[in-house]
Structure to design on (874 residues):
């Protein structure tokens, strides 16, 4: 017993040392959690490396002075000293192994559309609002950082993308400093994409809906709608018990949990009541049918993009091989590392439509002329 | 988009004990009728937080339809007759409250939290009041903040900032009053 | 007594300070933005993709006829406010107006008799024409649909049409009229003579600007069994159902959980589940202006084509 105690104390000390190590240069990388956990991390606490965002300072400022502060903020960010003034970094060429950055969109809801054959289908609208690249970390530096996972190897660097510009005096200093390199106002939401080094992007580059093209396929990852702690009928669709016939307190219960003999006991992974929703989910291989450049809206196949209306959605090139084939075969690579205004022709049309999509400006579909 | 001028819950509250245990939606409306009548009569109400916030919606809606449709509208008159249990208040609604709130662009009620009583039942109480009522204010009036250090520094910074932009050449003489005037405009 | 007093004061101070603190966002909203926040960012001067407010839409210098909103119920958006979005509704309306510029969608109501021509690959003439009475009309925006009913060879037939389906070639109103009820699904349990219309029916002309006639016919229902409990629906266009229902059913009908008398004057229920009048006015003004513009363009086009044809005819004569 004593030996066990000493060992556990030693272990605790060791871990504590690692955690508290004041000088980051001494240890190349701090603590990677290799422990595998069934399920997911269900906590509201932000991770330890998360810099605090909001500040709460009670300031008795008169309305005129508050307006003055706002004016100064707007003027400073009107012509920011963007790092882009030196010209963008050299642009890589697209290969089948390339992984470009994505964008952080907002889900607007669903609309029906029709194909040229007259088939009705549902599309989801995603708006790309005010996106900027905030930071790029090359692979070797990224491998030393906190959020790195060993199975990624040294293939990927990381790009941080932010959406929705805010006023800087709402945030803490440490959070505002994240945006100094990019020269943009602090963003409401940040996300990180893994990219290959040939798709490196300079911080401060604006991203918009033209990052994608008509007919390309994308993956969407977002958090699903949260339902809180739910019973077995809503969470797993079980049948529950009977309503009458002497049923006592078993109307919505799950029934038996396990069998007898060698199958006795509650097996791991048994479906039980618990927290439902608010979970990261990825939907892969969604086609882009329509692009609205005026409002920066993507029309994407299906109604299965996770999350509620006005939820954040990470949109990036698909990882499915068979949906990337047309890029290789046709020699039609996407804009690298993203779309720059000088790439396209001027002016950019307000709307791009897929060839198979019905344009509402056209005449009705009729088969009579085919005879 | 959202036409409410005050925060609204997605789902209504169920007053399960408004008229004793087992009260249903009919009793809820009965309770709300009494609360709405009391608020229009006294212009200020102290009740449970949930009662106050539910009543708020009904009073706001009632005043808004009264403003929009006037007293010649049969449906509006029916609603006023239903919600105001004391009938002299119908006159008050159309003759006093409608002119008072006609040009408002904000909500016509205010809500304040009251502290919880300790020791006590722990019920959250609140105050709901009509704006422009004759009672003394619930929250003490804000003192003048212009002489606080942050504001003094900010206003002088504002004056300097404006002067750098050369709004008017007269201000360069260092006339402090003029500087402040320019800063305030 | 001192300790509780201090507690009360502490709590009061805390609560009064709370209003100055930024609101703590609960976990379930951490990946979602509220509607007003999105709107703020769309118009924010800090935003790189700033959307300028279009001032042409806001002032209401045009007088929209009061019937306009009843003629075009499909332009009203889905009323659940936490699922609404201004930009999506705008894009949806654009699509609808584009489609309306191509195909003529006439004024019709539930109870009108209509003929719809639909492109059909498998039909003999590659077209399919159906005549029937409109028994329902519902859906918001591009989802809007209507249902036609007719009795063909002694068999009731109902077809649901999506209003903005590009396969729709033509919509005709043969007889414009209203009925007493918002939905006529009870015709399924009425004798077939109430829903029988000739397929070669000729259109009945209506004076322009006249009020839409109301057909106050009272349908005599078949005896039970029915597809729904019609006695609970408070139907106006049906003869009294007392002969068909039992005493127990009559009692059940008056049960408060079924009748729900408290919902009649519930102002907040109405505000939560319907779209505000002011917003309806905004939408209808926008649509009215766009429709007028489209009609003008159409007239101009027709005028130019007419002139060209006249010119051609003159050249041919020469």
């Amino acid at each position: 017993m004593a030996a066990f105690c000493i060992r556990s104390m030693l272990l605790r000390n060791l871990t504590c040392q690692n955690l508290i190590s004041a000088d980051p240069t001494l240890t190349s990388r701090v603590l990677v959690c290799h422990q595998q956990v069934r399920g997911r991390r269900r906590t509201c606490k932000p991770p330890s490396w998360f810099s605090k965002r909001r500040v709460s300072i009670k300031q008795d400022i008169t309305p005129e002075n508050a307006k003055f502060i706002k004016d100064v903020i707007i003027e400073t960010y009107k012509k920011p000293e963007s790092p882009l003034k030196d010209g963008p970094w050299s642009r890589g060429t697209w290969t089948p192994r390339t992984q470009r950055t994505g964008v952080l969109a907002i889900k607007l809801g669903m609309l029906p559309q029709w194909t040229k054959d007259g088939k009705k289908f549902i599309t989801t609208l995603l708006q790309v609002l005010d996106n900027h690249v905030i930071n790029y970390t090359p692979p070797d530096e990224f491998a030393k950082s906190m959020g790195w996972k060993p199975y990624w190897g040294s293939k990927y660097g990381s790009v941080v993308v932010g959406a929705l510009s805010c006023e800087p005096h709402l945030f803490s200093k440490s959070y505002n400093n994240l945006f100094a390199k990019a020269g943009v106002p602090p963003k409401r939401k940040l996300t990180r994409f893994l990219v290959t080094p040939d798709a490196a992007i300079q911080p401060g580059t604006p991203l918009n809906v033209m990052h994608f093209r008509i007919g390309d396929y994308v993956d969407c990852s977002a958090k699903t709608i949260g339902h809180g702690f739910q019973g077995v009928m809503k969470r797993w669709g079980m049948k529950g018990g009977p309503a009458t016939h002497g049923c006592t307190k078993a109307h919505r219960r799950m029934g038996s949990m396990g069998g007898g003999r060698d199958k006795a006991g509650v097996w791991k992974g048994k479906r039980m009541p618990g927290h439902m929703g608010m979970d990261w989910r990825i939907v892969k291989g969604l086609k882009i049918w329509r692009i609205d450049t005026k409002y920066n809206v993507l029309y994407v196949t299906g109604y299965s993009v996770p999350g509620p209306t006005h939820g954040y959605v990470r949109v990036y090139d698909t990882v499915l091989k068979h949906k990337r084939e047309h890029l290789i075969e046709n020699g039609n690579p996407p804009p690298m590392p993203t779309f720059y205004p000088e790439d396209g022709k001027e002016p950019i049309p307000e709307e791009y439509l897929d060839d198979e999509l019905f344009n509402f400006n056209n005449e009705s579909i009729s088969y009579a002329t085919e005879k | 988009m959202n036409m409410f001028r005050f925060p609204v819950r997605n789902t209504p509250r169920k007053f399960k004990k408004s008229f004793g245990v087992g009260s249903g939606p009919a009793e809820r409306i009965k309770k709300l009728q009494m609360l709405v009548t009391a608020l229009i009569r006294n212009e200020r109400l102290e009740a449970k937080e949930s009662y106050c916030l539910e009543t708020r919606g009904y009073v706001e809606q009632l005043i808004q339809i009264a403003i929009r449709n006037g007293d010649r509208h049969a449906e509006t008159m029916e609603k006023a007759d239903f919600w105001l249990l004391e009938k002299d208040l119908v006159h008050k609604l159309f003759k006093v409250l409608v002119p008072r709130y006609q040009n408002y662009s904000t909500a016509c009620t205010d809500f304040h939290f009251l502290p919880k009583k300790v020791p006590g039942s722990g019920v959250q109480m609140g105050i709901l009041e009509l704006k422009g009522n004759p009672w003394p204010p619930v929250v003490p009036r804000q003192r003048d903040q212009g002489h606080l250090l942050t504001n003094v520094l900010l206003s002088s910074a504002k004056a300097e900032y404006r002067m750098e932009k050369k709004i008017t050449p007269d201000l360069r003489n260092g006339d402090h009053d003029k500087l402040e005037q320019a800063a305030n405009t | 007594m001192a300790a509780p007093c201090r507690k009360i004061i502490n709590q009061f101070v805390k609560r009064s300070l709370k209003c100055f603190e930024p609101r703590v966002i609960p976990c379930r909203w951490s990946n979602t933005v509220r509607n007003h926040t999105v709107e703020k960012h769309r118009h924010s001067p800090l935003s790189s993709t700033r959307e300028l407010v279009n001032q042409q839409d806001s002032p209401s210098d045009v007088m929209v006829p009061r019937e306009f909103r009843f003629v075009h119920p499909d332009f009203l958006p889905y009323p659940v406010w936490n699922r609404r979005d201004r930009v999506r509704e705008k894009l949806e309306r654009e699509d609808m107006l584009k489609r309306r510029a191509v195909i003529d969608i006439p004024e019709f109501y539930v109870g009108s008799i209509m003929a719809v021509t639909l492109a059909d690959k498998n039909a003999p003439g590659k077209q399919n024409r159906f005549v029937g009475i409109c028994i329902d009309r519902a859906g918001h925006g591009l989802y809007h649909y209507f249902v036609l009913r007719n009795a063909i060879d002694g068999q009731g037939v109902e077809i649901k049409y999506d209003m903005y389906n590009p396969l729709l070639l033509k919509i005709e109103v043969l007889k414009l009229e209203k009925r007493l009820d918002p939905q006529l699904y009870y015709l399924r349990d009425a004798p077939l003579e109430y829903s029988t219309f000739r397929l070669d029916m000729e259109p009945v002309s209506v004076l322009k600007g006249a009020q839409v006639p109301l057909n106050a016919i009272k349908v005599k229902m078949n005896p039970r069994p029915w597809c729904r409990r019609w006695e609970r629906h408070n139907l106006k266009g049906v003869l009294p159902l007392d002969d068909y229902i039992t005493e127990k059913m009559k009692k059940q009908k008056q049960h408060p959980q079924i009748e729900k008398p408290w919902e009649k004057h519930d102002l907040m229920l109405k505000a939560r589940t319907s779209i505000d009048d002011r917003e309806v006015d905004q939408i209808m003004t926008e649509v009215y202006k766009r429709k007028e513009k489209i009609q003008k363009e159409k007239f101009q086009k027709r005028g130019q084509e007419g002139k060209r044809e006249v010119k051609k005819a003159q050249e041919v004569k020469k």
In short: Chain C touches chain A through 54 residues (CB under 8 Å).
